[in-house]
Amino acid sequence: MANYKFSVFVIAIIFVFFSAIFRYSQAKSLPLAAAQIKLQKQVQNGEPFVGFNIGTDVSNILSATDLVSFLQIQKITQVRLYDADPDILKALAKTKIRVIISVPNNQILAIGSSNTTAASWIDRNVVAYYPETLITAIAVGDELLTTVPSSAPLLMPAIESLYSALVAANLHTQIKISTPHAASVILDPFPPSQSFFNQSWSSVMLPLLQFLSKTGSPLMMNLYPYYVFMQNKGVVPLDNSLFKPLTPSKEMVDPNTLLHYTNVLDAMIDAAYFSMKNLNITDVVVLVTETGWPSKGDSKEPYATIDNADTYNSNLIKHVLDRSGTPFHPEVTSSVYIYELFNEDLRSPPVSEANWGLFYGNSTPVYLLHVYGSGTFLANDTTNQTYCIAMDGVDSRILQAALDWACGPGTANCSEIQPGEDCYQPNNVKNHASYAFDSYYQKEGKAPGSCDFKGVAMITTTDPSHGSCIFPGR
């Protein structure tokens, strides 16, 4: 969880930045190895997805029933719990929401020491709910190697005992078992091609990876570009951390592979792939079990802002749903779980620890994600009252073209933005485009993709109506 993150991703060598001499397409043209094809087959459930971690250090937390209703309103279909809360698992029954449950670190000792205890845990937390509740995986501990190293010798015994219990229940093909790692288990993370796992954990990592390969389970990694940036300010540009468009001179280039990296997260994921490759494991998929950006911090955390959190998470969602893959594995896009759904206001300082959530505990949004083009997914609106408006900073000529399409071929009702009508003022292309976009969006039933207009529109929960001008969404 978030308080583990200050130990993550200690950069051993400096990111190398220089102008792109070789085109990225040249690097991508390298033939896919057979291992990459095997890796592609390991990707489960088809499309990559964005899920959410649900922490419970929240005052006035929603009841389990209200939580599940909220997830359904937000069209969230993948969640991760840090335990196996029985009330939540019951409330998730007969929904289409898939859930990763967890064995807390303080239970590893008992489970790793007793097959009977492991079997009892599976009976109590899995068999009792599955298949009515769609449990997809079990996360055994969380960053155990780096936070509770004394328990490391019992990690594999715990995983193997739980797996044996799943086999006995005939659930081992439906439910995967793995353990989330902090990024700091990987040394020399850039360039990715030189990365390797900390050899202090070789006695655990190699058997674990062999187990994951054998069972078709993912390598779970908690990856935070925020901490990479904070620990390397002046070396790692903010834009690289936030998925912002880059000029070729700002791309990170791996000098060994000539692969170009346009964002930090892809480099971190590929560092995991290369680290596995160095141990001759080439068919295990990386699942990002935690990533995110805090929206508020103290004086020592000036980059923990709403704007940066919005930018990171919005661009992350687009990156995953675009199925962009990584430079090393363009054929495989890792699914991610955003840390986190709710601000955990009961967490200890620093300030950022309580401010990773997209929503407050009462389910109102901390900030509005710019997830235009993704339909109703994460509209951040508990009443599903959403509008489609023009984005800020868009060239007026591009907006005018989108406006013309909406009012013409798009058949939006644009009568209210004609001269003398209620929404004519202010008489500028951004105001008129917003009205036309919302008219089209509402006419299309808020369908996925109906608020895009080639990337110049966005979904908002703030009513853009003003004075006597009432937008269609109201």
From TrEMBL:
This is glucan endo-1,3-beta-D-glucosidase. Pfam families: Glyco_hydro_17, X8. It is an enzyme of class 3 (hydrolase). It comes from the Eukaryota. Belongs to the glycosyl hydrolase 17 family. Keywords: Disulfide bond, Glycosidase, Hydrolase, Signal. SMART domains: X8. SUPFAM superfamilies: (Trans)glycosidases. Its EC number is 3.2.1.39. The keyword Methyltransferase does not apply. InterPro entries: GH (IPR017853), Glyco_hydro_17 (IPR000490), Glyco_hydro_17_plant (IPR044965), X8 (IPR012946). It catalyses: Hydrolysis of (1->3)-beta-D-glucosidic linkages in (1->3)-beta-D-glucans. PANTHER family: GLUCAN ENDO-1,3-BETA-GLUCOSIDASE BG1-RELATED-RELATED. Residues 386-471 form the X8 domain. It comes from Hevea brasiliensis.
